[in-house]
Amino acid sequence: MSAFNFTDILTKAVDELADSQSYKGLVHKQADGLPMPSAGALHDVVELVRAIIFPGYYGTPVFNSRTTAYHIGVNVERLHALLTEQIAAGLCFGGGGGADSHVVAAEEIRQTAAMKAAELIARLPGLRQLLATDVEAAYNGDPAATSHAEVICCYPAIRAISNYRLAHALLEIGVPLIPRIITEMAHSETGIDIHPGAQIGSHFTIDHGTGVVIGETCIIGRGVKLYQGVTLGARSFPLDEQGNPVKGIARHPILEDDVIVYSNATILGRITIGRGATVGGNIWVTEDVPAGARIVQRR
Amino acid sequence: MSAFNFTDILTKAVDELADSQSYKGLVHKQADGLPMPSAGALHDVVELVRAIIFPGYYGTPVFNSRTTAYHIGVNVERLHALLTEQIAAGLCFGGGGGADSHVVAAEEIRQTAAMKAAELIARLPGLRQLLATDVEAAYNGDPAATSHAEVICCYPAIRAISNYRLAHALLEIGVPLIPRIITEMAHSETGIDIHPGAQIGSHFTIDHGTGVVIGETCIIGRGVKLYQGVTLGARSFPLDEQGNPVKGIARHPILEDDVIVYSNATILGRITIGRGATVGGNIWVTEDVPAGARIVQRR
Amino acid sequence: MSAFNFTDILTKAVDELADSQSYKGLVHKQADGLPMPSAGALHDVVELVRAIIFPGYYGTPVFNSRTTAYHIGVNVERLHALLTEQIAAGLCFGGGGGADSHVVAAEEIRQTAAMKAAELIARLPGLRQLLATDVEAAYNGDPAATSHAEVICCYPAIRAISNYRLAHALLEIGVPLIPRIITEMAHSETGIDIHPGAQIGSHFTIDHGTGVVIGETCIIGRGVKLYQGVTLGARSFPLDEQGNPVKGIARHPILEDDVIVYSNATILGRITIGRGATVGGNIWVTEDVPAGARIVQRR
Amino acid sequence: MSAFNFTDILTKAVDELADSQSYKGLVHKQADGLPMPSAGALHDVVELVRAIIFPGYYGTPVFNSRTTAYHIGVNVERLHALLTEQIAAGLCFGGGGGADSHVVAAEEIRQTAAMKAAELIARLPGLRQLLATDVEAAYNGDPAATSHAEVICCYPAIRAISNYRLAHALLEIGVPLIPRIITEMAHSETGIDIHPGAQIGSHFTIDHGTGVVIGETCIIGRGVKLYQGVTLGARSFPLDEQGNPVKGIARHPILEDDVIVYSNATILGRITIGRGATVGGNIWVTEDVPAGARIVQRR
Amino acid sequence: MSAFNFTDILTKAVDELADSQSYKGLVHKQADGLPMPSAGALHDVVELVRAIIFPGYYGTPVFNSRTTAYHIGVNVERLHALLTEQIAAGLCFGGGGGADSHVVAAEEIRQTAAMKAAELIARLPGLRQLLATDVEAAYNGDPAATSHAEVICCYPAIRAISNYRLAHALLEIGVPLIPRIITEMAHSETGIDIHPGAQIGSHFTIDHGTGVVIGETCIIGRGVKLYQGVTLGARSFPLDEQGNPVKGIARHPILEDDVIVYSNATILGRITIGRGATVGGNIWVTEDVPAGARIVQRR
Amino acid sequence: MSAFNFTDILTKAVDELADSQSYKGLVHKQADGLPMPSAGALHDVVELVRAIIFPGYYGTPVFNSRTTAYHIGVNVERLHALLTEQIAAGLCFGGGGGADSHVVAAEEIRQTAAMKAAELIARLPGLRQLLATDVEAAYNGDPAATSHAEVICCYPAIRAISNYRLAHALLEIGVPLIPRIITEMAHSETGIDIHPGAQIGSHFTIDHGTGVVIGETCIIGRGVKLYQGVTLGARSFPLDEQGNPVKGIARHPILEDDVIVYSNATILGRITIGRGATVGGNIWVTEDVPAGARIVQRR
């Protein structure tokens, strides 16, 4: 008898939930045959990029140089296939432009995606060079680091920065949505939230990292070091006539070369922290800091 | 020879570890035939709820309205089965009451659980309406957001808030333990820690979010926005005669409608932040803030 | 035709990426037949340790004492096999010593690893006793905790502290790299970053926990409680003649028994927080705090 | 030292195996972006067809008619997607025609495949009717059968015949390669080898079945029953001028309605076994058998 | 435009397939909360039984006697849980009796199933003794067998006979459907089809085995050996007034002790092959064979 | 109360089953640290060999020659690792020699295994040449074959023969146990049972194949074709003084070049079927057949 009641309740709920009015604005309809963004596939993309950049640390072990070439060849090929599919998904799904992406033929989208995937792969050698400087910075900046191996295998900063550098490259190539998913994956894994739009120089490092936020329009120089809990955020933002925030305005800080920011400092607005300045922990900074200065919390 | 030594060491360790005195208070004994709380099953529960509420964003792609109805039907049915099992697990496992839940017949527990699972499903249409306001608030509150798709797919706040709203509903229905596991899953994924007991109004959003803590007895109005690292905590709590904390006392803040709290602010105790007030970052607030006020860190 | 272009781009990228000059310093070469550190295997190690220490909460359900003995026997055996392999991986991979670990015969490494794995298992009964005090501290310290079951199943502090205590024991036994991977797994899961080198007494608890950082040379007494966002860090560190940080210097705080530190406080340098002192939230502490003192943020 | 030797041997073997002369005629090159036949995907196709045709026996359990409609809707949608991909794979891969299928645009192949997949689905109601007669025949023909449930769940004949009927329909729709893979999957599972080209009437059953072979040009009437080990094969076949077998000639037996063939009988060539005839076990038949006759092995 | 057509075709097919008239007699409706027979779970049951009976050959490796006891304890516990669920599934699903099993309370079915599962486990020591004689017979009977290890690991006869002996025991305990599924699993794996109802003595062996069929009412003595392709079948069977076969009549052969039957022989009907008789290959036997006789095919 | 009884029954069963007397002769004890034969790993071995020999048909798709080289390199490396482990398992487990393999150091076994694995890989180019002739024979011998692709993808004979040729090579290299497991895997998959010890020439094919048995000491020439159900077996075998079969005596048939054997024929003993002879179906042959002869069943 009670089973009857369940069925009634469930049937009523399905009817309400399947009423298209009720999910208006919360549904995504997909043209048949087009791929969906997939967290699993993007996880594999990130793992492949790490395996290509740091051979023998991620992916299969490496025994000699010939073997390494084989593995890089296979990994690049697999990366191209996976990325093509996910870039195509981003182009269909997140396309912010005015055009309705669904009317574009699926095949054309796939070809565009394949070309963008190849562009990304062409940038991997440069990405590897950049990440090598980040590894060096992390190792030099932490007395607790016992080896490069420990830094590459264990340090959350390396994970977050490599996801960011990959996402930033994809954004420059013109891929929507996917870059943000990739940085959010690192955010979830490490607590470090770097917007793919930020511009970050070489030899960048973040110690511990949980709670770090780096906003969309930040510009960060060479050799900068952040500690956990640092926010590089926006102070406020202008609204348009409808009361919506105006998109795309430069509203986050600029950190020049060799700046250090200690834990839980909050730096807000389009201000400049000058070359070599040090920002102490737990403070709230909304004005420019001159080069070489050292500011700390008042007690 | 050395293999001999290993065996001796391991045998001795097993003997000590299997001595029931040694795990007293750290063991959970289960009546035969009753289900256990399962992180895997609860992960599926959360994914199903997301797939039902945001069709086409989570779960399988959606092509037209008829298809959507099929998928919602199947997902609701599967959700009911999984939830029934997990609610039953919560009833047996976490039952904090004086009664020994193990003497209750397994079948009776399963029937109670099935009814509570149906009650939760009956609340899903309401939950969807509430979450629609949260998506809108997140989109409107972030100049970096390029589309609703990006908000629903990528924003950790949406994940944390949807887990919280699901857990809060389960708590209201009288399900022990499971709600807390569900909010801790979001805590681990996003760094946002919302106790299922908190009461939170519509149009709620959290930017970035890592490090946010919202305590058990918080009351949060409509249109509130928090930034990363904000704590809404207890200041201190009375102990009973045995020196144990007294459970269930209102000890967390009340935030009225349209309050904004910036990053790393700590608001403690049963105080009230008045309607439309703004709390600046990195400050420590233990007293009421009047409506419309704006308080910031002293420099 | 365009397929041609892709192939050219990819071929060129593979050539550059497979050039051993390009991955110099970023590659790990493994002697044939030696195991690699594996996140999956270490995840299983941690789950097995939890299942052995908290029978019936993690792993398979427990029905009676005889069953418990069977499961502990099987789990200990499996733990020994997995740990041996991972310790061997740590010895080959992360060996910081001057000797080239690759010239040591694989079999010798495996035997050393098997002995170290047995040593770890011999410490499990002690570890269980210590963790029992941590569970008690978490339950007593949180009015929202409804049962020991809730604490053991849900509290991130228990996960982070049990990983730390396991990693610390492995470090004492002389295992490189693996301890750090284990604490980073907890860091990713909970946002709590405890270096395996820290020394932490019994009855230790962390509330909420996201953003907590505990440095390598910290010494923490009995009954200490930390809130989310607390940093126990280094203030600065001497560089050697080459400008590299000098490793292994005591540079993190000492917290004596019964200290409480509230959310987002930052305590830096080799200072001492005296017995029973309370450090308020969101402050920056770089000098000794006397026993019993209470310091808070200036407003 | 010995590791060196291994590397030399392996390197030499790779060079020889990667020499394109050495795999000439044994390689399949795939145009980029086209799907491959996948045993896993085809296994899912077969499971979905069984779940649609026999609701509640295969796939998820069925509770009431409304639920059944949901599940059939979702299963049909998933079947269409999987079949489209596999039919496309068959069109590219196995296309025996004179045209080079690789020059056809990928998108065109996908659209043809999607239409053929829809055609197959349109035939499923008919297939279900036919299989219902086969289930009835198996139940009526075996005194050991205790229920229709046992027949549908356990009898290898039902598995082999449902794969054959699916494959035969695909062949009629003009799908290359895939039908043969589907019947070979049943062959491997049941030991019953039915060529997808054979024509088989309703109420068909095979008892036990291991070793049964039914050739490409067989024609089998209504109500036929075969036992294990029966071969319906070709006697010999003409060669063309190059000494290759001429393809497509009718060369297998015709069994009229209500024929029974006992175990291990071998019936070869384009002969006719007349209506209602019985062929005894372990015999070798190469000539017509009149209607109603009964032939047995000589002793 | 063509996508439209697909949708129409699929929609029409779903309507027809979801019409409950169309699947009448082909649907299984399940009372809510009752388990389904599961091929995966039964596969695990068989693997556990093999691991318990042949410790160290199947399942985890065995190092010493203490370890063996742990593993057998855990395996027996897991076997009891899995078997209880599957026996309950068999009781609900395949119950051929007059009573409607769905009206019996789910809990009562589960308790009956748990008791039957325990009965089966109580028979395992006897089953092990019996299977030990089968292993010995296979080793002694095959000059190609190099060790007992090879027989236990590789010989399909051991797989088929152990499934049969397990299924036969379940049938004696009164479990419907499940025994037949278990023997069909061996049939699919080995091509050996033994009905669970057959009665087979100790020291039984089958060489190669593909195509062997042993019918429901066979009685086989001690020390019998069969070769591949042997059928022990029914000759014909009486029909009842409705023309359906009468169930349960003794209709298969009796093979006395020490009989040998060579490959592809077909023995039909309730006849007796006397002690020590030898039946040559490829012959058709429908009459008694005296003890000690040797019959072969006429040339 | 009944739960009590279960526990008693299960406890008693565990005691009996864990009594080492009861599993005497049925247990395999493994020295710590040595690998076990693994069906899963051997399945991967077979798939890798197929992927190396038939690039693009098995394993990942192949786009151009450069890609093919990458994949073959990676597959050969992975094959070497997997095979080394499994050969080591075979050496420990199935070692038929007089020496007690367990006293040999694990490392020495691993090195021997690695060398044997390299020897096998060095034979792969020759194996590919041989299998190319088998594919050609299957295609030419079957009018139903529409393409080489169909033969390589679908024909069970190709699966069975490639497993046999791999197993035969391993046997020649001196690997125990593993070859037999590999041919039994094909036996289970195809119903074709070829002993790894048999010697089989080029251009070999088997049509349909279910029930084929080829014994240990068979010698088969070039261009031989068998149909389903053919047995090439032993007639009888001498016993030694203890009544055990004498191992290793030549006791199976010799088939000279170009012999054809039709379905279900049984050929027994060390007889010779002369060059170009044809053996009809369903017959029992125990004497030499002259070259060019054609023998059939008497009617």
Descriptive report:
The model of chain A is unreliable at 96-103 (pLDDT under 50). Helix content of chain A is 45%, strand content 11%. Chain A has helices spanning 2-18, 39-53, 65-93, 106-122, 124-141, 148-154, 156-173, 178-190, and strands at 193-194, 199-200, 205-207, 213-214, 219-220, 225-227, 231-233, 254-255, 260-261, 266-268, 272-273, 278-279, 284-285, 294-295. Chain A has eight helices and 14 strands. Chains in contact: A-B, A-C, A-D, A-E, A-F, B-C, B-D, B-E, B-F, C-D, C-E, C-F, D-E, D-F, E-F. The interface between B and C is large, with 63 and 67 residues.
Sum this structure up briefly.
Six copies of one chain form a homohexamer. The first copy, chain A, has about 300 residues and is α/β, with parallel strands linked by helices.
Shape of chain A: globular
What is the succession of H and E elements of chain A?
A: HHHHHHHHEEEEEEEEEEEEEE
Beta-strand percentage of chain A?
Answer: 5-15%
As an assembly, this protein is homohexamer
Count of DSSP-assigned helices of chain A: 8
Any idea what the radius of gyration of chain A is?
23 Å
The total beta strand count of chain A reads 14
- SSE-based structural type of chain A: alpha/beta
Stretches of chain A where pLDDT is under 50 for at least 5 consecutive residues are 96-103
Tell me the helix content of chain A: 40-55%
Placed side by side, the strands forming the largest sheet of chain A appear as: 1-4-7-10-13
Note the gap between the termini of chain A: 69 Å
Major sheet description of chain A: 5 strands, parallel
Main interface: chain pair and counts:
B-C, 63 and 67 residues
- Mean pLDDT rating of chain A: 88
